[in-house]
Design a protein that fits this description.
Elements lengths: L1 E7 L10 E2 L7 E8 L9 H16 L7 E8 L4 H14 L4 E3 L4 H14 L3 E2 L24 H15 L5 E6 L2 H14 L7 E5 L7 H9 L4 E5 L2 H13 L5 E4 L6 H8 L1 H4 L3 E4 L13 H13 L8 H20 L2 E2 L1 H8 L28 E7 L4 E3 L5 E2 L2
Parallel strand pairs: 2-12, 3-4, 3-5, 5-6, 7-8, 7-9, 9-10
Antiparallel strand pairs: 1-4, 11-13, 13-14, 13-15
């Protein structure tokens, strides 16, 4: 699949001489993206579609200086080898200025060294693995969402504090993202609890039903479910079928009501524990919130008919909003070096759909923009926040 949009970018007037690297000019900025429009990760494809719609909105609002973003988004089919093939096309054929929000841990890992060797920004990676926050070794790679390890520590601490007789079972995706989650979770347990059983799955597996049956048989009363949307839905549905009712802790990347919980059965999902850093569109608490109203207006005009219960849309909107701010800060210096400099200079940036109190901050030594999350519980219809405040996760 291929998406290409021309979008006028909002940039301030610049007094300095214009400076461009390949992919930028007086009239154009080329942004490269890879999404799983097919394959096991296709539930995430709406993120790329949302980003395309967001840039379309920026275009229709006029922009400044006549520049347009050409957003070029290819399908990597949730396959790392395919990601390598497509990233070479974006760099060597399309000559993009930067890559943006490539989706997937293994997929970004497969192209990280190549992009850094070429000195092309790998900006706002669509994964929370620790390896994206390593400016000393990979100065052209920056994450966006909270760290998986840090998120795992939140869950581990919560279990250690609230379940006195915890017996823990863990399902995890066999890649760096799964390992990061499990590492953080075990750290959060603080040595007080040793997991009874840990089972992995491959993204190419057709089902994880056998693993869920084994995990139930362990006698665990806490289930840490580290899964991407397709497999998270399977796990939630299967625990319901087996009448296994542990404290079910689900990673943030699979909390979409539309893409995961409804297909799994909301009755099966009731009571799930997770974390959030973005507003839940189903929560009536945001009905009068200014940022939420901006998001609703965007949805109504640029994504009519899309399911507002899909938190992946909120994610796509928010990361695109961040990129537009970085490019605005670049002014007329649209060199790759300046793109990274501005991305590493974000201070207390507020976005429409970030939870209150959470802002984006980066520096030359800190490539982890979002550092807070809040524990949430699914009540059968929507996610409810546990407590008034988000927790710092570093």
């Amino acid at each position: 699949m291929f998406i290409m949009l021309g979008v006028a970018l909002l940039c301030p007037e610049a007094s300095a001489q214009k400076q461009y690297d390949p992919g930028a000019s007086d009239t154009e900025i080329k942004i490269g993206n890879l999404m799983p429009y097919s394959g096991a990760g296709s539930a995430y494809s709406v993120i790329g579609k949302t980003e395309a719609a967001y840039f379309e909105m920026i275009n229709k609002k006029g922009g400044i200086g006549g520049r347009k973003i050409n957003f070029i988004s290819y399908d990597h089919a949730y396959s790392p080898p395919k990601a390598v093939e497509q990233i070479r096309k974006l760099v060597e054929s399309d000559e993009v200025l930067l890559t943006f929000n490539i989706l997937g841990t293994a997929h970004n890992a497969a192209v990280q060294k190549y992009l850094n060797a070429k000195k092309i920004p790998q900006l706002f990676v669509g994964s929370g693995a620790e390896r994206w926050n390593d400016p000393a070794h990979f100065p052209w790679t920056m994450g966006w969402q909270p760290s998986y390890q840090a998120e795992g520590r939140i869950y581990g601490r919560y279990v250690a504090q609230t379940v006195s007789d915890a017996k823990v079972a863990i399902l995890w995706q066999n890649d760096d993202s799964g390992r990061d989650y499990v590492k953080g979770f075990v750290e959060g347990l603080g040595g007080k609890i040793e997991p009874a059983l840990k089972l992995s799955y491959e993204i190419t597996d057709p089902t994880i039903d056998p693993q869920i049956s084994q995990l139930k048989a362990s006698g665990a009363n806490v289930f840490f479910d580290v899964a991407s949307p397709k497999f998270a839905a399977q796990a939630i549905r299967k625990t319901g079928e087996l009448q296994w009712r542990p404290m079910h802790v689900l990673n943030n990347i699979s909390t979409s009501v539309a893409a995961v919980l409804r297909p799994a059965g909301v009755d099966n999902a009731k009571g799930l524990i997770s974390t959030a850093y973005l507003k839940d569109p189903l929560d009536p608490a945001w009905s009068g919130d200014e940022g939420y109203l901006h998001w609703i207006a965007f949805m109504n005009e640029y994504m009519p008919g899309a399911d507002k219960a899909d938190s992946n849309i909120v994610y796509g909107y928010s990361v695109a909003q961040t990129l537009v701010e970085v490019l605005r800060m670049c002014g007329d210096n649209l060199s790759r070096e300046n793109v990274m400099k501005q991305a590493a200079s974000l201070k207390d940036l507020k976005l429409d759909m970030l939870l209150p109190g959470i802002t984006i901050n980066t520096s030359a030594a800190d490539f982890s923009p979002i550092k807070e999350e809040q524990l949430i519980r699914f009540d059968g219809e929507k996610w409810e926040r546990l407590g008034p405040d988000a927790a710092t996760i570093r």
